[in-house]
Design a protein that fits this description.
This protein has 5 helices and 2 strands. It has 106 residues and is mainly alpha-helical. The longest helix is centred in the N-terminal third of the chain and has 24 residues. The protein is elongated and about 45 Å long. 14% of the residues are buried. The C terminus is likely disordered.
């Protein structure tokens, strides 16, 4: 996978992780804080991580080999609308899974 696509997948996974941690903290369930470096591999190996990786590899021209069809991963992840950030400096990308957890993009 290209470094740019790997970084995009890792960023999306990290954002979902941060939002999940925020929700867990919000219900007063205590967890051990972990760094991004500690979470990279477990997030990549998660079901969401495997679907995002399969989509990125397919976009690079590799055959899709995760499930029956790339649409299975697209359906799991959900739509990925790109919007411009309020300052206009960068696109804001929110995948279906992140939209479900919604709220933050950091």
């Amino acid at each position: 996978m290209t470094p740019k696509h790997q970084q995009l997948v890792d960023d999306l996974l990290w954002r979902v992780h941060l939002r999940t941690e925020e929700l867990i903290t919000g219900i007063s369930f205590r967890t051990q804080p972990r760094t991004r470096e500690q979470m990279t591999e477990p997030l990549r190996n998660s079901l969401l991580g495997r679907h995002l990786t399969a989509i990125a590899l397919y976009a690079e021209g590799y055959p899709y080999s995760f499930e029956q069809d790339v649409r299975a991963s697209a359906a799991y992840v959900g739509p990925i609308p790109a919007q411009i950030s309020p300052d206009g400096a960068r696109p804001v990308i929110q995948c279906g899974a992140a939209a479900l957890l919604s709220g933050r993009t950091t």
